[in-house]
């Protein structure tokens, strides 16, 4: 019971790198900066999670499958969050230009 609790805490801290990358690239919007931080902060937090699971997983094949899958999903999740945010912004900008063109005032919510 205690070992699973410790693993959960370590895996939760692995998302801290995602928060740092998203916070910085939200305020300073350069794609090159995102890619650098994605590899640096996202990669380091992924390595931290993989290191925590390597020491707790029994068997070489399950260890390889678990850590490989986790690292790919962890890095792609940050990539997805960044570009999903771009889609939301593009939709807002398009809706704003439609609003100005039509003269109709849409409710704000």
Automatic annotation (TrEMBL):
Q: Which UniProt keywords apply?
A: Cell membrane, Cytoplasm, Differentiation, Glycoprotein, Golgi apparatus, Membrane, Transmembrane, Transmembrane helix
Q: Which residues cross the membrane?
A: 6-25, 32-51, 63-85
Q: How does it sit in the membrane?
A: Multi-pass membrane protein
Query: Where is it mainly found?
Result: membrane
Protein location: Cell membrane; Cytoplasm; Golgi apparatus, cis-Golgi network membrane
Origin, by domain of life? Eukaryota
Q: What do the Gene Ontology cellular component annotations say?
A: Golgi apparatus; plasma membrane
Does this entry carry the keyword Membrane? yes
Biological process terms from the Gene Ontology for this record are: cell differentiation
Q: What does this protein do?
A: Involved in the maintenance of the Golgi structure. May play a role in hematopoiesis.
Q: Which family does it belong to?
A: Belongs to the YIP1 family.
The name of this protein is Protein YIPF3
Query: Which source organism?
Result: Perca fluviatilis
